[in-house]
Structure formats: structure tokens, C-alpha cells
Write a structure and sequence with these properties.
This protein has two helices and 18 strands. The strands form three sheets. Strands 1-2-3-6-7-8-9-12-13-14-15-16-17-18 form a 14-stranded antiparallel barrel. It has a single domain, classed as Outer membrane protein transport protein (OMPP1/FadL/TodX) (Porin, Beta Barrel). The longest helix is centred in the N-terminal third of the chain and has 19 residues. The protein has 314 residues and is mainly beta.
Length: 314
Amino acid sequence: MIIFKRYCLRLIPAVLLCLIRPAAHAEIVGGETAMPFMVAPRSAAYTGMGGASYASASSVATAVFSNPSVIPYYQGKFDAAASYMSWMPEIDVMPIANVSASARLNGRIGITAGGVYMDYGTPSVSALGAVYPGESGRNIIFGAGAGIRIVGSLTAGANVRYVSQSLGDYSIEAIVFDAMASYRISGFIFTGGVRNFGYDVEDAYSVKYKLPSSAVVGAGYEACISRDHVFEALLDVDCPFAGGSSVAVGGRYTLAGILTLRAGYRHATEGASVPSFASTGIGLHWKNVSIDGAYIFGSEVLQNSFIAGLRLSF
């Protein structure tokens, strides 16, 4: 507990400084952030809550893309998900396939793994934001991670992912890491750490670009009013090192373990990799199978994006 308090006292001031600084692009080499697609939401469930997910253990299937330190809190033993997303359909045709799974091996250790395949249509929008008419390309992400209970309700976790982007004859690749810690007390989960940390990448002209690395904190609360009524509220704060910031809030209501309704909003300043958007979602559950969907609106860039997924948990 003392270690976690010291961790929060060091991290929270940095995040608050990020939120109150002017909303502008940081002066980094190359002037832009590379491969921001790696921070796009991957879960059909959490996308419906504004993308907030760091401090939730209700589903850990996509922990390899989010927060592996919450896997030891998961009540089941296995959680897997596959989803299809139509990302930025008003700008380009960008279908995304996500597949991932997590397993709690015992009361202390959990593991996670997954992959992403994203295909560019024509015209294509590169990771650096430029439009290349007539070019097609693809993005690939795959990785693995683990979470461990350190002592009591204090956990820690880490992910490592390989990320690549190709566009015509142009390609870049990177290895990124996540390091997270979480603490649970009653129905609350508090978490924080760093995500997408890695070295700068270079383009074909040897120009360097920063990755969308960030310091993050999150808080979540789940309440079971009765066996048939479950509520969850989530808050995520992202503070990218390259500039910009975002705050996501979301919630869900599950009725009788059969129907889940979700809603959320993400507010992002200029320079954030994912712009502001509102979202809503629905989930249907039967025994160990769930079907989830989410729709994004209120965003000029992401308007009409949607994600649908299948989840298996036990």
C-alpha cells in the first residue's frame, strides 16, 4: 500500500501538468507522432464507453492492448475476444480485425496475447497523417504480456508489442512496451503507468518521429445493486509525452446478466492521437458467450465508426 501511494504521488502531478498545459503539438523531431493507430480502441465493449478501460476487470480479453495489471482481478479464468472495426469511414476505408485473449493462471498471475490487422483502402491516410491517393497499405500489431499480484490488492503488469506500417514501398516498424500498476479496494480500482513506450522511428528519408507514448492513470468502480443490476463507471486520463491529452469517461448497466447498455465520451486536446468522440454500445450475453457492438459519433474524423465483436469467457 505504501509503495502504491508513493507511485501515485509521483505520477499524478505529471498528469495534472499535462492537462493544464496549452493544447498544442510538442516540438519534436519530425513535427508529428508516428503510428497513432496503435492507440485506437480494440474492445467492442469498452469502445462503447468512450474507450475508457484501464481500471476495469469486467473484461480482460484485450489487456494486451491496454492494462495487463488488472488480469489478476478477473473473476474468471479465460477471456477471449475477436472484433471487426470500421475506423474513420468518412475519410477512408479502414477495416480493422482484432483478436486477443487473456488467462488467469492462478490467484497471482495472468497472461495475455493478441494481434491486430488493419488494411488501408484508396486513398490512404498514413500514420503520419498524410494522404497518399492511389496507395494501399496495412498496419500490423501483435504482442503479449503478463500481470502479477505483488502483495494484497497491489498488482503490476507489462506488455510488449511489435508494430509495423506499410504504405506502398514505404514501411516503418517499432517495438513498444507498457508498464502498469493497479490497486483494488472494495469496488474501486485505481491504476497508472506508461503505455506505448519505445524508441523513435525513422521514415525512408531518415526523418525521426516520436511514438504515441503516454503516462496514464485510471479509476473504476463497479457496484452490484442486486444480482440482476450491475453498474460500472470508468475514468481514463492519457498524457502523451509528445503533446496533447485526453480524458475518457464511460459507464455500463447490465440487466440480469443478459443485456448491457453502454455510453461514454472522450475529450481530447489538439495533438492527441485519438480525437474527441462520443460513443454508445450494447451487449447481449448468453452463458459464456457475448456479442458486443459500439458506435462512434460526435467527431468529424471518427464519425460513423463502429465495432462489433464476439467474446468467450469462463
